[in-house]
Every structure is written in structure tokens, then in C-alpha cells.
Fold this protein.
Amino acid sequence: MALQGITVLDLTRLLPGAFCSQLMADLGAEVIKIEQLDGGDYNRAFPPLAKKESGSFLLLNRNKKSLALNLKSDEGKKIFKELVAKADVVLEGFRPGVMERLGLSYESLSQTNPMLVYCAISGYGQDGPLRLAPGHDLNYLAMAGALQLFGKAGEDPIVPGLSIADVGGGSLMASTGILAALISRGKTGRGQFVDISMFDGAVAWLPYHGADHLFGGIEPRGGETRFIGQAACYNVYRCADGRHLALGIIEDHFWHRFCDAVGLSDLKADQWPTGERAETQKRRLQSLFASQSRDAWLEQLAPADIPLSAVYDMQEAFSQPHFRHRQMMLEVEHPVEGTVPQLGFPIKLSDTPASIRTPPPLLGQHTAEILEGMGYTQADIDRLQQGGVVARYAD
């Protein structure tokens, strides 16, 4: 597998770090979740629950091992440093300064292992005026100028339905940074510190709309520019049955085909109106689509070969043949939950494909296995557990 032989120590909780380390685990890395003894990763408690485990935890933590370790104890730090000595990556998601206070900063750990790649995911980065500010996905989007892009013209911004800054600005940027650092290490023999700010990541997602501001003198807001709701040709419409269609036309030849197919040839020369003309055009299309059901429109307009899609709910999306063909729905056997569905791996590699090898771990499930692999005896492990340094899963 592509990352076989790479060991990742994952100290993160919740979404950004978990998705990042699952990508690496699916590609073959050994990912050890370092979890606090009492409850572990906060995501274990998030609803909805399957039988006992959180559904979102089950979708974010396959192919990983769980070591329940008290990093505030001297022996817990000792065990962690022993793991670091042979690891390739440390991934953490604390506020800046937390790892320093624990005596586990990059500067400290890199003395133990100069080849270590240390990645810190935080809200606003390791330096700057906002470095210690609390936040979550919505806050980073708001501060980056991105939240105003979501909503309708003249109305307030809305909460996006996806965790864009967490995953796009955090998880994906972190995995890219880690892989880049590993490639660099192969040339230099040295690891490095990877500073990932979800705020920075959200800003980096703004090349289209940032251009409006930087080069056009336009402040882009939801519903007021071409690709965020202003244009009739690039919008969502409600049909007679209450379902919706997404019309995603950009190229003029698609627009001409659409206008001809629905009998609106008078609109062919006016694909990108603004102001009241844009609102009038959207009302005409809304009235048109409201005359038939969603699926009737799909059938009628299929011969036109235009970017028109059903707005699926998850039941429909997860059931469609293409979803299955691309192996975006898989399964794994879990010791408590039984057969657990899994969302598939999005990157298809011809020679070193990703795979699901193990289910999401129970809290502390691999504590004994990991410590035994480090040379600890059963008596040592018993003593550590009794002293509150580690925890093992118990039925």
C-alpha cells in the first residue's frame, strides 16, 4: 500500500484530524489514536449512536488503533516519547501552546526523532493575533470572508451544510502538508513542522470569489454574483412534486441547447443578466420547472445533454448505481456494532489502492498490543493501568 511502513500518532479529536488520519490509514499507514482515558475522542459521544458507538466516529476511524494514554502523567509522556522515537508523523489539533505545556512540543520531540513530521491543525495557526482564539468551522468561514457567499440575495448568510473549513481547510490541507513533508524528508533526511490553520485553508478556497473583490472591486455575496445564486442558468429550482433540480450551465452552447429544449429561445442571447433582469429570468425558469415533476424534467431534457441534475437526498444519493460502482459505499465488521457501513475512499490509485482492513477501534482496544510491541510486560501494563496511566478496553 502507498503509505505502508508509515506510523502516525494521532492526538486529535473530532472531525479535522480524524478525517486526515483516516485518509492516511486507508492508504496503509499505521495510525495510533492516542486517546484520553475517560471517554476518549469527544466524537465517540456524538449522536446518532449505532448500538453503542457514535455513527460519525464509525465513519471517521477505521483502520486505526486506539491507545488510551494519560499524557499528563510522567509515565504517559515517557510512553508517548518512546512511540515518537519510531514514528514518522505526529498529528495534533490542540490550541497553540498546549503541547508545549505538556513538554511535548515539536522542538522537544524532534530532538528525540529528527526525522519526525509534526503537523498541528488549529483554528488560526500557531502565530498571529488570533492564534489563541476559540472557534469552529462556522467561525473560520466567517472570518475568512467566505460565509457571506452562502445565502440568497438581500438575505442573511446561512450556515453551510458541510464542514468546509474543517475538512477542506483542515483535513485536506493537513494530509497534503504531511505528504509533502514526508517526500522532503526522503531527500533531506529531516522532518519538519507543518502548521495548518483552518482559517488559512478557508481563505485558500476563495480564488474565484476573491477575484471579484481583488480585481473587480465587487463584494461577492450569496445570490448576488454569477456562481452563488444570481444567475438563472446556474441555480436550483423546485419542481411540481416538491423535489429540486440543479441547473449548472456555464458554457453558452449548453445554455442555447437548454433554451431550445424548453422553448425559451428569447433567452439565448442573455445568459448572464444582472439586477432585475436576472430576477425576472429566474422567476421565468422557476415557473417553468414548477410545471412538472423532477423526474419528468430529467427524462424530457436528457436528450439535450446539458448539466442538469436531480438534487438527491442521501437515500437516493447512496443508492444510485454510480455511487456503488465507484465503491463509495463499503462495509466492515465491528466487534460490537456488527456490519457497519463505510463511506468509500475518494482517491483511486492503480498500483497501491486504499483498503478497509480494520473497523474503528474501541477505546483502548489496542493499548496492550501497542505496549507489548514496545517491550512492556503484562505486569508492566497492569501496573500502568492501576496507576491511571493507560486504559484497556473491557467488555
About this structure: The chain is about 40% helix and 15% strand. The mean pLDDT is 95. The longest helix spans residues 164-188. The chain has two domains: 7-205+326-391, 226-238+244-310.
